[in-house]
Amino acid sequence: MVKNINFIKYLYYNSVKYHQRVLMRRMSSDSRKYVDVEKIRNFSIVAHVDHGKSTLADRLLELTGVKKPGDEQSQVLDQLQVEKERGITVKAVTATLDYTYNNETYLLNLIDTPGHVDFSNEVVRSVTACQGVIMLVDANEGIQAQTVAVHSLAKRNNLVIIPTLNKVDLPRANPDKVKEQLQSVFKIDPNTVLSISAKKGWGVRELLEAVIMRIPPPKVVLDDHFSAHIIDTWHDKYRGVLCLAYITSGTVKVGQAVKWQSDSKLQTVKHLALLRPTEEPIDEAIAGQVVMVGCGPKGGGSVGDQLVAKELANASERLSAPAVKHMVYAGIFPADQSQHILLSDAIKKLALNDSAVSVTIDSSPALGQGWRIGFLGLLHLDVFTQRLLQEHKAEAILTAPSVPYKVKIKGAKLIKHYKTDEILITNPLQLPDPNNVVEYFEPFVKGTIITPVEYIGAVTSLCIDRRGTPLPSSAVDDTMTMLQFILPLSEIVVDFHDTLKSITSGFASFDYEDDGFHSSSLVRMDILINGMLVDELSTIVHASRLEYNARRLAEKLKEMIPRQMVQVAIQAVVGGKVLARETIKAYRKDVTAKLYGGDVTRRKKLLKQQAEGKKKMRSVANIKIPRDTFIDVLKK
């Protein structure tokens, strides 16, 4: 009887929930049916790190009624646990807002983007769905390196830029000086610059109205077949792959038959919703909107693909996503091979949500089966592994990160094997024999540093020490200058930013863009532990820094590898030549301590037994290298 009552309650509860969802969809559909494309505004917030993007997004959510003023939860759009813990934005998040201006209701699609250079790919994808950006600049710090990068990105995409000064309420704020910087560097009229305090809400309403007045509506075609560009994807446990789509033409409805441009199989739109930022189901969406689309567990797509009406499947060209250039490669292996399937599923789901990573299968004699994954930087790598653990409970071992190289090879057999005379090296173990290599190529970047003038000498010395080549510099204002250098990627990817902040008391900012591969003199350096090669610690090093890197690696490993029962010899080797050696002494035990007298032969006997035991132990010793060694060993 109790079971029957519970079953009836279960049916009633699900019936009520179903009707609530249907009613919400009808209400949402009715309210969206008369959306005028001229009343749609798509825009992003772009800025340097910690200039207040997520705080401004909070105020915009409050102003449009999505979030209650005084709500304890801050930075609502930072939804990942890693974002809340680190205080940074990792994923670009969309929120659809309603705002009434001059008795007209506008539909605003806001995208809050990351500020760190490692997540610039999120910004690049976000602006493809926008017609304008709010370029936020800290009124205390002024123009920073990433500000230059996002301004250049907005200009390349022909977006309307609304320059905005934030944190004008702070005592150190100097809005007039920062306006002069904007005019000097970007030729922006100071009269067009807005001043706000995102924390206190000053000037936010005027900024929102400026978005409506300055940013044009999307240029789309309503009376045409449906077509949408995918700007983000993620995985849902019950609904499969969900996509964030910018509709470029036509309309889409729940139940409509569609196709992926990259696939000929028909799909059915099963889920359609606005993100506010929580999902609000709708029945129909029109061109110009940014909506969430789902085609069921087997109807997933990919970032950069197009979702089109079945009539257009063979008629339109696919809009490819901007090419991602990976700056760092690292091996990821399960802590135990029994967890290989769990880690594999976790990496696939996370790679779906983070389209900036590249995943290839790899293997290691020491760590077993794993993957070689490309990242945009060390912070990107760190956040990826943290998300694996937090979101998917998958624990992984990381190998030392390395940058990609190119080599030009000789020999008909090798060229036939690789199908080209130039090959990309993402793992030091892939480097061919030096006798078969014609030329080595190393990735370089064009670095932009904005620093106070008193630190120019220290910054220049740092860059030249890292094999940098100076480019012409320019003054931002009387106190700040912008320096540019051509730098090897391998010299800046690990600890350059930390060192730069240290020597400039935290005032300098750094950003970089790819400058291609340059010819360079490179060699592979191996690490031997007790005569055994440790593949995971092999690195590719420039010839000029060979001895320095060898000593540094050997000393670092000596600090990080715990003492064993036997002596451990650490050697840095290039082509059979030992460049550096460190020795970790074995634990010592006085086996003769219990002797209190007697013949000396007893003492010799005990010492001989100990020596034989240690010799046997050395022959079968398994040196345990701590898990963090592989990434920490490259940090200076």
UniProtKB/TrEMBL annotation:
Positions bound to GTP: 47-54, 112-116, 166-169
GO biological process: positive regulation of translation; translation
Keywords: GTP-binding, Hydrolase, Membrane, Mitochondrion, Mitochondrion inner membrane, Nucleotide-binding, Protein biosynthesis
PROSITE patterns assigned: G_TR_2
Gene Ontology MF term list: GTP binding; GTPase activity; mitochondrial ribosome binding
A GO CC term assigned to this protein in UniProt: mitochondrial matrix
Gene3D superfamilies recorded: 3.30.70.240, Elongation factor 4, C-terminal domain, Elongation Factor G (Translational Gtpase), domain 3, P-loop containing nucleotide triphosphate hydrolases, Translation factors
Membrane protein topology class: Peripheral membrane protein
InterPro entries noted in UniProt: EF-4, EF-G-like_DII, EFG_III/V, EFG_V-like, LepA_C_sf, LepA_CTD, LepA_IV, P-loop_NTPase
All residue ranges annotated as the Tr-type G domain in the record: 38-219
EC number: 3.6.5.n1
Function summary: Promotes mitochondrial protein synthesis. May act as a fidelity factor of the translation reaction, by catalyzing a one-codon backward translocation of tRNAs on improperly translocated ribosomes. Binds to mitochondrial ribosomes in a GTP-dependent manner.
Family per similarity comment: Belongs to the TRAFAC class translation factor GTPase superfamily. Classic translation factor GTPase family. LepA subfamily.
The protein, known as: Translation factor GUF1 homolog, mitochondrial
